[in-house]
Write a structure and sequence with these properties.
Organism: Amycolatopsis melonis
Subunit structure: Homodimer.
Radius of gyration: 17 Å
Subcellular location: Cytoplasm
Oligomer: single chain
Number of strands: 7
Strand content: 15-25%
Distance between the termini: 37 Å
Family: Belongs to the dethiobiotin synthetase family.
Cofactor: Mg(2+)
Length: 239
């Protein structure tokens, strides 16, 4: 079981979740993806889980616990809409239920690790702790990502969580100096290895192209072929 969190919104967390799921499915594993709270999406609109199924395949089991129409934190969106909030116990029970019938369960948070689910301040960190799950941090490539990654990792560690690694969720076609430097510095900030780099725009790929890119961009830990040292050398040479 893996808890997927980001250093913020729009960092490529759903694409990264789908990529991990796609490789696991390709390897013959039974995969489930749990999205506790989907915000900013109307009841009849496709959400993040629809993207996961589109990219990773229909064999992936998906479950969404709450959906709120406003693009806010789950707590704020629930308060504004008058819909029920979530608590870590409900999320943990749903994750455990899925995990009993699957080889890999991925839990995708909303935004960062401490985004609030309810008025008590419950967050994805509480879910990860109650499940004893490893945490994957999905980070941005460029300037400012080191501080956000270090803060996320420090909070996780202080709460008794284990950060398994960091993944860059959207690598630019033309990386700048900060992005290239961060290939070396992000693992230091996270206190955990760089487990992958996924190219920007991957969400528009066909399923076959997506699986190939996931294999190239994710660590052997996920069934991929990514080597951080080789990638850093290639990226610098291309620049």
């Amino acid at each position: 079981m893996l808890v997927m969190t980001g250093t913020g919104t729009g960092v490529g967390k759903t694409i990264t979740t789908a990529a991990i799921a796609a490789l696991a499915v390709a390897g013959g594993q039974r995969v489930a993806v749990l999205k506790p709270a989907q915000t900013g999406v109307a009841p009849d609109e496709p959400g993040d889980l629809a993207d996961v199924v589109r990219l990773a395949g229909g064999d992936v089991t998906t479950r969404e616990l709450r959906r709120y129409p406003d693009p806010l934190s789950p707590e704020a969106a629930a308060r504004r809409s008058g819909l029920p909030t979530l608590d870590p116990g409900e999320i943990a029970r749903a994750a455990s239920d899925l995990d009993t019938g699957h080889d890999l369960t991925l839990i995708e948070g909303a935004g960062g690790l401490l985004v609030r689910f309810d008025g008590t301040g419950a967050s994805l960190a509480d879910v990860a702790w109650s499940l004893g799950s490893l945490v994957i941090i999905v980070a941005e490539a460029g300037l400012g990502t080191l501080n956000a990654t270090a803060l996320t990792a420090e909070v996780a560690t202080k709460r008794g969580l284990t950060v398994a690694g960091v993944i860059i969720g959207s690598w630019p076609a033309e990386p700048d100096l900060a992005s290239l430097s961060n290939l070396e510095d992000l693992p230091v900030a996270a206190g955990a290895p760089l487990l992958g780099v996924l190219p920007a725009g991957l969400g528009t790929a066909s399923r076959e192209e997506f699986v190939a890119a996931a294999r190239a961009g994710l660590s052997p830990w996920f069934g991929g072929e990514f080597d951080p040292e080789l990638f850093a050398g290639w990226a610098s040479a291309e620049k």
